[in-house]
Amino acid sequence: MIVALAGGVGGGRMAAGLSRVLPPRGLAVIVNTGDDFEHLGLHLSPDLDSVLYTMAGVADARRGWGRAGESWNFMSAIGELGGAAWFRLGDRDLALHVLRTHLLGRGLPLSEVTRRIGARLGVRHAVLPMAETPVRTRVRTARGVLDFQDYFVRRQCRPRARGFHFAGSRAARVPRGVRRLLVPGRTRAVVICPSNPYVSIAPILSVPALRDWMARRAFPVVAVSPIVGGAAVKGPAAKIMRELGEEPSAAGLARHYGPLVDGWVVDRRDAAHARAIAREGHAVVVTDTVMDGARKAEVLARTVVAFARSLTRSG
Ligand code: FO1
Question: What is the model's pTM?
Fold first, then answer.
């Protein structure tokens, strides 16, 4: 079993690529829920949805979130009525949020709700929330502590970030499907998708059971750099790295993760960084990492899986 840690656009694309090269029993995706929030009475799980939509082939690739072929009748009506319009919900996307909220209200755990919705969308691989219980990313900024979507969407990441906090992570309850992956010998390798290290991957690693599992691992961890040529492929990762005093480069990212990652996959444009990462003692593969299309994601996934298998310590 290969386990991918994912969030956001890069996470969704990598997970979709991996799902094309691994069978349903060979891949599980653990997804960030730190950016979940309550909006207009609905439970939103943006990263779970990005991963599900991308794996199902229904994501809007250009926008980077939500579904392709959306209509926006709900949004224009809510705007007319004076409701909050800063977070845009397409009509088809809205159906998912309504259904999820309804099923959660009936007492189903988030993992089961995700499984049902994924199955209806045609997703055959396990997509698992990192926690059943709420974990909420809060951003310490020059303008005070902000809820994640307030920082990310409403304020467009403009306030300078000083740090991140994941409220609820210490007491987080991990889904049964995730607990099974933590049993020694079950996971052959972990892939850290090219997701934002602070707001997509750090919340997952803030859950104690997951952090301990990674620290005591007998399996290799391979990470795909979301930083290419000194900039994030999408999103604010490079800006945040600068604000936190880290170098926004593939090598800076390797220093950020340190011994948590055994093997790095970096883009051809970062060949010089690859040499620096290798000097720090990591295995490195240099390839095309920008997944602008399903075919490219699949090719990258093949490289990542072969690399992870080559590093497998327990055979
Ligand atoms: N991101 C935006 O920048 N603006 C939006 O209006 C917006 C709406 C939205 C609706 C549903 C959804 O699942 C995601 C949405 N996102 C939007 C993206 C999302 O908030 C962030 O990209 C992720 O939380 C970060 O990974």
Answer: 0.97
